[in-house]
Amino acid sequence: MGEIMSKGLGALVFVAGVAGLTYWGAKSHAVSMENQIAAAASAVAAKHIHPLAMRVSGRDIVATGIADTEEDLAAIRKELDGLRGRRVVHTDGIEVLPRVDPFETALAKGAGDSAIEAMGYAPTEAAKAALVTAGVPVADLPLASGAPGGWGNAVSGGAAALGPLDEGGFALTGGTLTLNGIAATPVEDAAARAALVVPEGYDSVVAIEVIDPGVIDFSLDYDADTGFSLAGILPQGSGTETIAAALGREVKTGEVTGTFAELPGVDSAAAALASGLASVESLTLHGSNDGLSVSAEALAGLAPEGVAMALATALGDGVALNVTGAVEQPADGTERQNAYTGQRQYAFGGRWVDDPGVIDFSLDYDADTGFSLAGILPQGSGTETIAAALGREVKAGEVTGTFAELPGVDSAAAALASGLANVESLTLHGSNDGLSVSAEALAGLAPEGVAMALATALGDGVALNVTGAVERPADGTERQNAYTGQRQYAFGGRWVALPPGFEEPTAELCTEAAMQRVAQTPIRYVTGSAKLDPASMPVLDDLAGILNLCTRGPGMQVTIGGHTDAQGDPQRNFLLSSQRARTVKQALEARGVPAGKMIAIGYGQTRPVATNETEEGRAHNRRTTFEWPNN
What we know:
GMP Synthetase, Chain A, domain 3, hypothetical protein tt1634, six-stranded mixed beta sheet, about 30% helix
């Protein structure tokens, strides 16, 4: 019996062993087959220009990635279908790139900016990476098929060509390359053209504007009546400022540009003219690529030979010179101020004689048009000194000078700053008897207050008279105040300042401006009521300026929100916040803001911005807000 059992157990062990070996062999074969299919699928992926991921599970292949075209996708599928041992091939995860025809890639370089921006398409990630490594910012370009051969070299060359340009653009459109832009000089133009790479089979179009072709052609003209003027193309290193400094006089500028080309001696020649300018009626210093020359007309009554000798000695041999006699004699009694000497002159016996010393000038200011100056100024004063004292541009009418003195002109002009923002018009008049100021107060302002501020600044040496506004501006009138530079609009017979920077107001800008203003000075109410604190009137005036600008555009509507702290009954707080919002709306209506452009809403205590556990936090929560939503 034992022998039989022993044989039976042996047979069982043998059968189990054979079964185990069979299972192990099958499993090992499956793994080997999967590895073989995976290797073959990876080889297929490696042959294509876009990255492909191959995942093999058993004998099933799942492919993901990018195919250049439908034909490319079909080829991938066919190659995978042909792999030995595969069972199912899934290519749904492969994205086919859109085809762009003509294929476009563009680069742009803005004025004053060395950075280049890229637009359009790129053919492959590898091509993009190569350009990014070379410094061309194409990393964010989407992929597309249809790029012509040599795309990378062409775009790289386009980026290099933009480098020397001040600004420009490069475009690859199909097989055509376009380069356009602005070059400072012919040197940069040549560098840009040399950097452009045009692969075989491409056409190219290049249009570069050269700002400075290197031509020198300018004239510095002097006339004893009108002074100096400069126009033309100046050489490198010379300019209106350097020439004016060399002359020691103001130079009026016409159309003046510069070039990289050089012409030594321009400023020194201008300085040398000082030896003869008091003796000439007119003079021209001309400069070209060929050199410098001076032509002059001697002052009436002077011999041209003597004038020429003085100028030649000062200018030296490097400047061609020609001096002629006076073309005509001045009529007796004619008056003028010599532009170079500054002396007032009158004509007698065919020559010029110095002036009699009369002071008579007016510096006029108007809130609409600004400053203007005319008349005979005392020694030491001029348009420039008065403009510098005012800190503003002054339009000059017929202005001359005299040797007579009148101290305090420029200091009086500087003192006007204390009152100019509050006057509609003002005149500072000067004569041999002294200085006086007459002014008209700004509409809505008391002349006594304006007079007090001006009198304090001007002191006792200036006679002063201030009157009230002659007429009040019509509601809705707008202007820019010439002294403050602020935009103003009229309402209620007075001028209200409009905030700066609101040429094209947006919802965001308007909300920010209004909230900044109430953050500086919150709108206050009588405790426990919706009645406005009188101290809040200036805040509402400023807000009216903001809201008038910010409710003009289509859809520009403001929400005025009233908010309370959490003290007391919530329902009463809600009512109080609504009443306060309506009060602010009514106050702004009274200041010219269209009622239909404002919505008043009370939020009660529902929108705290700080804790209600402290007095400071509750003070922050009691507020009025202004929002321009959904614009």
